[in-house]
Every structure is written in structure tokens, then in C-alpha cells.
Design brief:
By secondary structure, this protein is α/β, with parallel strands linked by helices. It has ten helices and nine strands. Strands 1-4-5-6-7-8-9 form a seven-stranded parallel β-sheet. Strands 2-3 form a two-stranded antiparallel sheet. Helix 3 runs parallel beside helix 5. The two termini are 25 Å apart.
């Protein structure tokens, strides 16, 4: 089935554009240093950083002075780094600048519990403007540790999701990339604390990104190939048939193409 085309660009909407029409970040680099990171690969490709320096987070010059106006769609923050303890205060200041004019924000993170508690407490008056989307690609902490070496383990991410949910915030989960073939367990554990959606997606261009990110050692390459073998089209079809009746289940473009669903043409459709 042909993907619909965007009137503006003439191309199908994919990647994080499926989530929101606007993207903002306040740091350069990310201390989580995930092996497959798309933002790191882009920065290395365009020679804005090196694979070795990416993990050294830096505040973007003058970014906290940026003035925001009300926009006609949700803002994805942060789009090219994460919210980490070392720069939590700066991220909160930046978020406040975004929210004050009345903007809606999609906060995407591999969450540190202390950071999520601080954000929830700080922005309790903006609950109707905030949707959390926590990236959890596996319920196995060892798997998370391999692919996302400096990010929180599964239990901390689950507790972060539970906390935001209990505080009355809108919550969702992104299982992109899926880091194993046990999504059933992950969905079972997270679903009770999700108000909005669960996104499933495969790892995009793994060997290309691993090479750019300086993570193309034999063990990592072997793990990437093993992951690909665990997620053939038959596996994707199985997920689709199991969960297609669940209204909270959302499929990233790389899964839609396999099962013949139309790719979205406008961002922010899960608003």
C-alpha cells in the first residue's frame, strides 16, 4: 500500500515527526551515550562532534534566553539529548520557557526517577500541557545496559512511569527501538500506567549508525545482527495481530511499511 504524501514536503512523515511538528533541545551531546543513537550519528556525520566527545554534555550557547511564542502544535523536548541529573536545572528552565506561553510539550526520556519527580513537582500546574513518553526498549536491564550503557535500568524507568501516572500526568511509552523479542512482558508491565499510547518500532539502520557512533566492535555488531534475526517480518506480523485491536498501540513507520499500514502525513497525530 502506498504511503500518503505530505502536501508540504511531498514525503511521508517518519521518525520523530510522527510525534510532534516541533522539536527543541537545550544541550549538545548526551551522557547516556546509547550505541544506536540517531542524534549522535547525525552530529558525527555532519562533523558537529566526535564519537568520543558526544557523551560530554554542554549547554547550547544562549539557549536559556530563547523566547517562545504559542505554537500550533505540540513541541517534542528534548529531541537530540536526554534529561540527565547533571543538567536537570537547565532542562527545567528551558521547559518553563516553552510552557509559559501555553505550548503543549511531549517530554521524551529514558527517565531518571529523580529528574521525573523534579519535573512533575515543578510543573504540577501544567499537567494538561504535558505528555510524558518514556523510552523503554526492553524489560531486561542487562539488555538495556548493553545498548544504553549510561541510561537508567528497567526498574527505574518503570518507577518513573508509575510516578508520573500517579501524579496525574498523561503518560506513554516508546519501545523504539525494540531491543529484544519479548515485547509481551514489557507491555504487560507498563500498560497499567499508560494513559495515552505505546509505540513499537525497529532499530533503524543499525550497522550504519553503530559505525558512525564508534560502536562497531565485533561484539556489538554480532548483537545487532542477532537482534535483526530475532525480529523478522513474521515476528512483526505476530505483534501486529496480537495488539492491533488495542487502541493505545501505535506503530512506527518501519513497522507500518511491513504490515501495509499507511504512513502518517502530518505530525502530532497522537495528540
Amino acid at each position: 500500500m502506498k504511503a500518503k504524501r505530505s502536501i508540504k514536503s511531498g514525503k511521508p512523515v517518519s521518525g520523530n515527526k510522527e510525534w510532534a511538528p516541533y522539536r527543541e533541545s537545550c544541550l549538545v551531546g548526551c551522557s547516556h551515550d546509547c550505541k544506536y543513537c540517531y542524534a549522535k550519528a547525525m552530529a558525527v556525520h555532519y562533523k558537529r562532534t566526535s564519537p568520543q566527545n558526544w557523551k560530554n554534555e554542554k549547554l547550547r550557547p544562549n539557549t536559556l534566553q530563547k523566547v517562545f511564542h504559542k505554537r500550533g502544535g505540540r513541541i517534542f523536548f528534548p529531541s537530540s539529548h536526554d534529561i540527565t541529573p547533571a543538567h536537570l536545572s537547565e532542562c527545567i528552565t528551558f521547559l518553563k520557557n516553552i510552557l509559559t506561553p501555553g505550548n503543549e510539550v511531549l517530554i521524551v526520556s529514558k527517565p531518571h526517577l529523580d529528574c521525573i519527580k523534579a519535573i512533575c513537582d515543578e510543573f504540577s500546574g501544567y499537567k494538561d500541557k504535558i505528555l510524558f513518553r518514556f523510552t523503554i526498549g526492553s524489560s531486561n536491564s542487562n539488555t538495556l545496559k548493553f545498548w544504553e550503557p549510561n541510561a537508567p535500568d528497567f526498574q527505574e524507568r518503570l518507577e518513573s512511569l508509575q510516578y508520573a501516572f500517579q501524579q496525574g500526568y498523561k503518560t506513554s511509552v516508546s519501545c523504539e527501538p525494540m531491543l529484544d523479542n519479548n515485547m509481551r512482558d514489557l507491555i504487560r508491565q507498563t500498560a497499567p500506567f499508560i494513559t495515552d499510547s505505546i509505540w513499537l518500532g525497529k532499530m533503524n539502520k543499525p550497522l550504519y549508525r553503530l559505525r558512525l557512533n564508534g560502536k562497531n566492535d565485533p561484539i556489538t555488531i554480532a548483537k545487532a545482527l542477532e537482534l535483526s534475526q530475532k525480529q523478522p517480518d513474521e515476528f512483526i506480523w505476530g505483534l501486529y495481530f496480537r495488539y492491533k485491536a488495542n487502541p493505545k498501540m501505535k506503530w512506527k513507520d518501519n513497522i507500518k511499511k511491513i504490515v501495509g499500514l499507511e504512513v502518517a502525513t502530518e505530525p502530532g497525530l497522537d495528540k
